[in-house]
Amino acid sequence: xxxxxxxxxxxxxxxxxxxxxxxxxxxxxxxxxxxxxxxxxxxxxxxxxxxxxxxxxxxxxxxxxxxxxxxxxxxxxxxxxxxxxxxxxxxxxxxxxxxxxxxxxxxxxxxxxxxxxxxxxxxxxxxxxx
Length: 130
Description:
It is found in: Cytoplasm; Golgi apparatus, trans-Golgi network; Membrane. The chain folds into two domains: about 15-75, 2-Layer Sandwich (Guanine Nucleotide Dissociation Inhibitor, domain 2), CATH 3.30.519; about 85-125, Guanine Nucleotide Dissociation Inhibitor, domain 1. Helices cover about 30% and strands about 10% of the residues. The protein is built from four helices and four strands, in the order E-H-E-H-E-E-H-H. The strands form two sheets. It has a two-stranded antiparallel ribbon. A two-stranded antiparallel ribbon has the order 3-4. Strand 3 (about 85-90) and strand 4 form a beta hairpin. The longest helix has 16 residues, at about 110-125.
């Protein structure tokens, strides 16, 4: 609304806004929130250079949220990064979800028949022609 010239009043009991999915800045506030003793090391630079999401977000590349972020010009404060992989937690360990044929065959997440079906699925997706 402020982009369109409207006045906005935001009230929150926290020194940051956004509730459970907030982004905390400066870095000193993050240390206070998680009760980390001391202050951030000098090697991390200025505290205001950091903005840490309590819950990282996944955005669809051409979704409505991305369009809104571009419209409001907050993208100058954001860094976008491609997801490097998906992971699952199983039996007390973290495993990478296979994304290639070789990873599918080497994964301990699936049985022999599931690996074969998953490999076929990956081949199908790789060869899919829109």
